[in-house]
Amino acid sequence: MNAVIHPCTPSRRIPDRAKLGDKKFQDAVKDDQKHRALIKHQLNKKPLQKGEEVNLIRPPDARNVCKGDYKKFQDAVKDDQKHRALIKHQLNKKPLQEGEEVKLIRPPVRLSGPHLPKLRDFKPLMRLGKGTFGEVYLAQKNGGVDSGALYAMKMINISRSMGERNGPQKFRTEYAVHERVTNVPFLVGLHYTFQRESNLWLAVDYYPGGDLRDLLNWKRKLTESTTRLYLAEIVLAVDHLHKIGVIHRDLKPENILIDSEGHIAVTDYGLCKEFPPDAKIKRAYSVCGTSDYMAPEMIQGKGYSMEVDWWSVGIIAYEMMAGFRPFVIARDESKTKLRQKIVQQTPAIPKNFTSIGSRFVRGLLEKMPLKRLTSGKTIKQDIMQHQFFNGINWDKVASKKLKMPYVPPYNSSKDVHPVQNLKIELLAHTTGCKRAEACLYVAPSLIPSNE
């Protein structure tokens, strides 16, 4: 019988002599022989019973989706389903005979070994919310260099994401940008990725202070000096994205989170546009994002570049100091009317704005992209040295040494409590072997130096 594997028995990797050396290679060969003998013994001792579930440790590799190869992932899912049915049929029909060779199935993804973290290392504390493709939980890491750390665990159903309009592209982009900005100040980064069958788990930074929208709902509007502190951090976040060839395209208060010390972090990379490092022309054409924060050139469909993000920063700056957005419509008016106003009208500047604040906002809300702040000049010349930021020490901003005006009034690690009988593994909605998972990514800063 070809290609059989016992339930809950992990596949083995072919020993690599070049990497292991002679002694370790010989030990690995002996270990592999023992493993084969054990599988053979188990199959002869207890054939699969009728109706018993077969759990192959052979998950379709989610990295195919992360790279944009959605068809390869879908084909792997179908192949895996056919393979399970075939193995189950063969085991029921003909148990392994004495002396028959066992051919081990090697998975296309590396399974979580003893040195890698596993889903069960994360204790779920509370449900944070529900996204387009899955749910988000607050979880605490047990063990490792980051033991006790809190993470937002995002579960993504890959099959469901591929069924949504533009779902695969959003998923791939969000994953890629999360990974690229790990440990970058003011951007939500990725720390771990796990895969269980067609579910992907992303462990990202947790921000207990809510988002900028929550703060604006509470305060209604902020002073210019307070706004300046938040905008300084937002500017550095947006500048970093642009330096790595990414346009965010959905900057708004809801996508600006606040950490336990009051510092901000930009999140939600699903609508980002990535350009290859060698791209000479960085131009996009899709109309996407939130209408209230869309730049005129995006609405007009003429093509756009990084300047659309600075327009959004201008809308956010206006809203923080005014308490309302510069372009508004009545409840019975459509989004089309709102977009017409953005393209055609010049917003009135509230009286509480200083002359410097007014010039700064007008510079960001310039309808002509080539005349907008940061167009044709460096961010340092156009924004960081603008009078609006007089007195700001940018080195202290970058190192998060400035005291922020709002700090969440609680210690998140002490004020959250575990949900009874809730295990992160159970949330994956999969059955079968506990080892049927793969750790696809660990942030470099979390890998022990001896690994």
TrEMBL record:
Cofactor: Mg(2+)
InterPro entries tied to this protein: AGC-kinase_C, Kinase-like_dom_sf, Prot_kinase_dom, Protein_kinase_ATP_BS, Ser/Thr_kinase_AS, STKc_AGC
Coiled coil: none
Protein EC: 2.7.11.1
UniProt entry keywords in alphabetical sequence: ATP-binding, Kinase, Nucleotide-binding, Phosphoprotein, Repeat, Serine/threonine-protein kinase, Transferase
Amino-acid positions noted as binding ATP in the UniProt annotation, renumbered to this chain: K154
Keyword Repeat: yes
SMART domains: S_TKc
Transferase listed as a keyword: yes
Primary enzyme class: transferase
AGC-kinase C-terminal domain mapped to chain residues: 390-451
Occurrences of domain Protein kinase (ranges): 122-389
Reaction catalyzed: L-seryl-[protein] + ATP = O-phospho-L-seryl-[protein] + ADP + H(+); L-threonyl-[protein] + ATP = O-phospho-L-threonyl-[protein] + ADP + H(+)
Protein family: Belongs to the protein kinase superfamily.
Protein name, as recorded: non-specific serine/threonine protein kinase
Gene source species: Zootermopsis nevadensis
